[in-house]
Amino acid sequence: MARTDAIVLGAGIVGVSVALHLVKRGLAVTLVDRGETGRGTSYGNAGIIEANTLFPASFPANLKSLIRIALKQAPEANYHVSFLARVMPWLLAFRRHSAPKHLIATMRAMRPLFSAALAEHEALAAEARADRYLRHTGWLKLYRRDGSFAATSRERAFAAELGMRVRAMDVDAARGLEPALAPVFRHAVFWEEAASVTNPLALTRAYSARFAALGGVSIEGDARSLHRVDGRWRVETAQGPIDGEAAVVTLGPWAPDLLGPLGINLPLAVKRGYHRHFGARGNANLARPVLDADNGYCLAPIEQGIRVTTGAEFAARDAAPTPVQLNRVLPAARDLFPLGDAVEDRPWMGARPCFADSRPVIGRAPRQPELWLAYGHGHWGLTLGPATGRLIAEMMTGAIPFCDPAPYGAERFARA
Hints:
It contains 12 helices and 22 strands.
């Protein structure tokens, strides 16, 4: 029977980052996943390292937007009617946390993680010889309506106070950065300090290769088999049982499958999302990700093509795909940028694990000795993976954490 210091369950960007930071601190670490490294939720994102992020996504305050969503006509959100009753308590909590005072509290709580995000990626990428996947060209947010641009004024004011490099632009200035964009928008905001990734899957696998080079072990296994034996954690794998002094749950949307039977029921919801890759017509290209804010999608140039992402879909995690949002956004995307043919036969679908207060859970699990949690990063898994890995590794090894982990503790739900 193999023995180890720490078992990390889940080989997405968060799990790989946690495992890598633990092995760098001298622990014997086994990383367990039932599938391919980086092929789950981590694969489907816009590839943006959002070190500049201030406010999270919020519940729509505009009645017109709510009506469009309710009528299933909005590109930024979709839902399965049969799922509404199950997700309604989460949606009501999300609405409460979307009040201005709560958004500001979330911004302050999350700022230490976001402030460290890019530097932590750069450090791991340098070690893993994966610098070529990082692109320091910022990202561009476009606004087709005067009102939606005006709504960004508070965020831009906070950014200026914090010394962030952010520039409001007119159409000509934005097209100076991205000449292939058509002038179908009215305003733009350029977030200069954001970085992006040319191949999110390759970056995760480069970090995994660095983990292996330092002596870490990756094994196929079922995280749901985790249980206590003689004071240690045990998980069943393709190579037999693995015992560890500690276990870390980094399973994203699948975390409840393991935690529920252990008596840990935190109020996680899943926002499903889709993407599809397209070619570009002629010599058109993009140097950075571009958000069409009023239509709820992003164009992200990555190695597989121009990735078109969608907004959120509220549905059962394992329900059949319903990629209607891609059909809604593609006309707007083609008006904005000369997209060519689709690269794949069908869209990719994944699930983002989200807590209503837009914070992940990072820290000890309640009532379970030496069980640690690092999940619920919502739209920011790629951004915050390495920073999360460093923080939880410092907590587990008794080092002084680089930031206060209290805002991310599971205990906050007991106080709610």
